[in-house]
Amino acid sequence: MLYLSDRTRKLALYSILVSLSLSIWVFEEFIPRPAPWLKPGFSYIPVIIGMELMGTVLGGSIALLRSFLGALIFGRLFSASFILSISGASAAVIIMSLLFPLRGKMLTYIGISVAGAFTNILAQLIIAGKLFYDMKAMLILLPPSTVWTVFAGGVVGILANAITKSRVSAPLKERKN
Amino acid sequence: MKKTAYIGDGVIIIVVLLVGLSPIVGIRGNDRATSFEITINGRVYSIVSASIDTTIIIPGKMGKMVLVIKDGVAWVSESSCPRKICIKTGKINQPGQVIACVPNKVLIKALGPQKRREIDAILK
């Protein structure tokens, strides 16, 4: 049995969650999807787990770090798609952090995930409308995107529910920091 | 996390859908015709503002047509043509909608607010 200090455990857990989130994000990039900005969002599962195990600030930073490192991998750091990605991630993380204390009382991860997914898309469309394209075009894109976020966010929430309930995450929980 | 879903989840999904799908209603509601262009035999006869309620008698090729504009909506109330398709077309109020009367060679087109032209140049 290997014993690690709390700090080391936390560091290891954080690194694993970031790399998980990043690799899921990178692979999602290659999955065929209806539109470039509509991703399944499975990279938010590690974010939700991170929020549960290490608090909303550290957990949320996984999403931001993931956007940053992902852009680095694809060589589009500080490009338009990076700005959209990071602003979407920030908006989603803020909303998710605000809703997170309500979990188990009024919400499950499904609601948190759907809200996060929607704010992500909303922030991206608003930023895209203000900076790069026409706002009216973004309004047309919003309804279909919304249907997608409810669907994808729901799936992510159900998966996050299942993962946190299952035994897979039990060893992580027993020595919660 | 005992339950699989709470009421809050449903509330969030409903709120998200309401906010996200609202542009569908908004875009249609805002886009109203500002004027109507009347063309006879390919030539512009007149352009009438949609904000003034009027009745216009159009001299078509077969006889007169009566165009009524009220509350930004236009329709043909009387026509001399045989099949009355222009009357059956009903009321138009959105940019791009058209009432056509083939025997009279009359075309009534709803125009929206002036947009950027998509044609760069025309060569003849």
What descriptors fit this protein?
heterodimer, A: 177 residues, mainly alpha, 7 helices, globular, B: 124 residues, alpha+beta, mini-chromosome maintenance (MCM) complex, domain 2, four-stranded antiparallel beta sheet, 2 helices
Summarize the topology.
The complex is a heterodimer of chains A (177) and B (124).
Chain A: H1 6-28, H2 44-54, H3 56-74, H4 80-99, H5 109-131, H6 135-165, H7 170-173
Chain B: H1 7-30, E1 35-40, E2 43-49, E3 54-59, E4 64-70, E5 73-79, H2 85-89, E6 98-101, E7 106-111
Antiparallel strand pairs in B: 1-2, 1-7, 3-4, 4-5, 6-7
Give a quick precis of the structure.
The complex is a heterodimer of chains A (177) and B (124). Chain A is mainly alpha-helical. Chain A is 74% helix and 0% strand.
Question: How would you sum up this structure, described in words?
Answer:
The complex is a heterodimer of chains A (177) and B (124). Chain A has helices at residues 6-28, 44-54, 56-74, 80-99, 109-131, 135-165, 170-173. Chain A has one domain: Arp2/3 complex 21 kDa subunit ARPC3 (Orthogonal Bundle), CATH 1.10.1760.20. Chain A has 177 residues and is mostly helical. With 124 residues, chain B is an alpha+beta fold. Chain B has a domain at 35-111: mini-chromosome maintenance (MCM) complex, domain 2, CATH 2.60.320.10. Chain B has two helices and seven strands, in the order H-E-E-E-E-E-H-E-E. Chain B has helices at residues 7-30, 85-89, and strands spanning 35-40, 43-49, 54-59, 64-70, 73-79, 98-101, 106-111. In chain B, strand 1 (35-40) and strand 2 (43-49) form a beta hairpin. The model of chain B has no long low-confidence stretch (mean pLDDT 81). At the A-B interface, helix 5 and helix 6 of A face helix 1 of B.
CATH topology name of chain A? Arp2/3 complex 21 kDa subunit ARPC3
Number of strands of chain A: 0
**H/E order of the elements of chain A?**
HHHHHHH
- The proportion of strand residues of chain B reads 25-35%
Under the CATH scheme, which class of chain A? Answer: Mainly Alpha
Helix percentage of chain B? 10-25%
Q: Mean of residue pLDDT of chain A?
A: 87
CATH-derived architecture of chain A: Orthogonal Bundle
Q: Cα-atom Rg of chain A, whole angstroms?
A: 16 Å
- Biggest chain pair interface: A-B, 31 and 22 residues
Shape of chain A: globular
Our count of helices of chain A gives 7
Order of helices and strands of chain B: HEEEEEHEE
Strand content of chain A: under 5%
Largest sheet report of chain A: none
In terms of per-residue confidence, which ranges of chain A show pLDDT below 50 for 5 or more consecutive residues? Answer: none
Shape call of chain B:
elongated
- CATH domain topology of the domain at 35-111 in chain B: mini-chromosome maintenance (MCM) complex, domain 2
What is the name of the CATH architecture of the domain at 35-111 in chain B? Answer: Sandwich
Binned, the helix content of chain A reads over 70%
